[in-house]
Amino acid sequence: MKYLSTRGGIQPIPFSQAVMMGLATDGGLTLPVSIPTVTTATLKHWADLEFIPLALEIISLFVAEDDIPRHDLDRLIHKAFASFTHPEITPLVTVGNHHVLELFHGPTLAFKDVALQLLGNLFEYLLQRDGGTLNILGATSGDTGSAAIHGVRGKKGMEIFILHPHRRVSPIQERQMTTVLDANVHNIAIEGTFDDGQAIVKKLFNDLAFKKKYHLGAVNSINWARIVAQVVYYFYAWGRLAHGDATRPVEFSVPTGNFGDIFAGYIAKRMGLPMGKLLLATNRNDILTRFFSTGSYRIGQAHPTISPSMDIQVSSNFERYLYYLLHEDPVAVGQKMAELDATGAFQVPRSVIDAAGEFRATAVGEEETVTTIRSVHQRYGYLLDPHTAVGFAAAKETPGMVCLATAHPAKFGDAVKQAIGREPQRPPLLDGLEQRPYRCQVMAASVQAVRDFIAGQLG
């Protein structure tokens, strides 16, 4: 299996090189040359597998044996999920007329752990095998940062620099990052939005001389390994509901801001997973909903909400879907992204979007999010975090959907208290978090400021 760039500027490379490259050197995102497809017989077999064996079967389709041997991949996958607190890793529970796929049983209580525990192990494995050092640079809207930090903390040959928007993540999200005091962890709070941080990261990656000199690598969902790891739980959820019927379709509702989680579902569908249209659920920051409704992708102001991990205007993974939407034409993708950089917008004909027919999209407001948390708790005794509530609310007209639960409600105590009148019970992982020592550097949302900080820390 080889990988190319959405902008066509690199020669095909193996999985391991795509992992270490992160953002492609032409500014695009890596994708497999072809998406593997699975037969009905394979689906029937997979439906009965537990999570870790299923992960090995799926991920190995994207990794050549002569790149990372299967027995090594098996070991890395087992190690990645050893810290999860639920035996099923991503259990599926029934809540009213829907199913909730709980993705928050990892060390930072968010769905990002599923991919980032594996990615940290991949980095460590490849550095030990091939030598060298890696300095990880990423931006977070809340959950990616802590999951990435916990995935690589203390690992040899790696430093990690994580940018988060100052005072625009939940207090617990902030503390989960800044209380990790390992010497290889560097937290940066920028005085701006997540989009500002993401733009800084991309500009530094596109400075190829800086990237090469400081051995920069990516943990954001621009790293393909993040996507392929998340593909697994779509197949796993389907298998829990298929009951041996390899043709039974399942529908998914996905709260999304950066388009990575739902893009993994899109890849699962292209592989052959029986599903209808993916339901894309956004909060007030509805650039993706507007695109699928009108064909216009237009950057607006990022508004703070009670679901802060979705307070995003520029969805970095959207370029991967755009590549397929534009019939795998890297020139057309490059033109659209250049137009976005120059004008803050681009247009795709509605006829093209309708012909693809892969998504339906809904935006959910603040009041409806709070009401959904309250009503689900009152009716079923189940507590949603505000991001999961966005997806649950979007799915209300379609019974039987699988709603992805992206974070534990205790990470967003203020929003939950607003809905049910009290904060949720905390899991042991969060005990005493506010009392721990912390370390963080606050700085302007400036490429030069971040560049200077990295250079200063790395000498």
Characteristic terms for this protein:
single chain; alpha/beta; Rossmann fold; 6-stranded mixed sheet; 44% helix; 15% strand; globular
- Separation of the first and last Cα atoms: 37 Å
Beta-strand percentage?
15-25%
| Biggest sheet details | 6 strands, mixed
Q: Portion of residues in helices?
A: 40-55%
Strands side by side in the biggest sheet: 4-5-15-10-11-14
Radius of gyration: 20 Å
Question: What would the average pLDDT be, to the nearest integer?
Answer: 95
CATH class of one domain: Alpha Beta
Total strands: the figure is: 16
**Which CATH-level-2 architecture of one domain?**
3-Layer(aba) Sandwich
- Uncertain segments are none
CATH topology of one domain: Rossmann fold
Helix count?
19
Q: Give the overall form.
A: globular
Pairing-aware structural class of the strands and helices? alpha/beta
Give the arrangement of secondary structure elements.
Elements: E1 2-5, E2 13-14, H1 15-21, E3 30-32, H2 40-46, H3 51-60, H4 70-80, E4 92-95, E5 98-102, H5 112-130, E6 134-139, H6 143-152, E7 158-165, H7 171-178, E8 185-191, H8 194-206, H9 208-213, E9 216-218, H10 224-242, E10 252-255, H11 260-271, E11 278-282, H12 287-294, E12 296-298, H13 318-325, H14 330-343, E13 345-347, H15 350-356, E14 359-363, H16 366-380, H17 386-394, E15 402-405, H18 413-420, E16 441-444, H19 447-458
Parallel strand pairs: 5-15, 6-7, 6-9, 7-8, 8-16, 10-11, 10-15, 11-14
Antiparallel strand pairs: 1-2, 1-3, 4-5, 12-13
Helix pairs in contact: 3-4, 3-10, 4-5, 5-6, 5-10, 6-7, 10-11, 16-17, 16-18
